[in-house]
Design a protein that fits this description.
By secondary structure, this protein is mostly helical. It has six helices and no strands.
Length: about 110
Amino acid sequence: MPRDVKRAVEFIQADYAEKLTMAELAQAAGVSIRILQKGFQREYAQSPMTYLKNIRLDMSHYLLAQRRDDNTVTDLAYSSGFSHLGRFSADYKARFNCSPRKTDAWLCC
């Protein structure tokens, strides 16, 4: 894996819940936005922002499957870095073929 892509991946994994921009990812990687986009396309066949969204979806899926009654879907979505709940729900359902509210150890996913 190219060093710049690796640096961006490490930055994403450390700060996925923060509001990250392409400019911040490129700065963390030490390259231009375009170079970073090309690197992610070669390594992962997706953009850096899609990679970030998938990391957030994976984390929210894990948290939802482990959640207790005192954690709401809204709380877990926000803690995973999502700021628009409608977009979160649509992306989650597209990825896991299950709504966030139905995700737990027994119902689905």
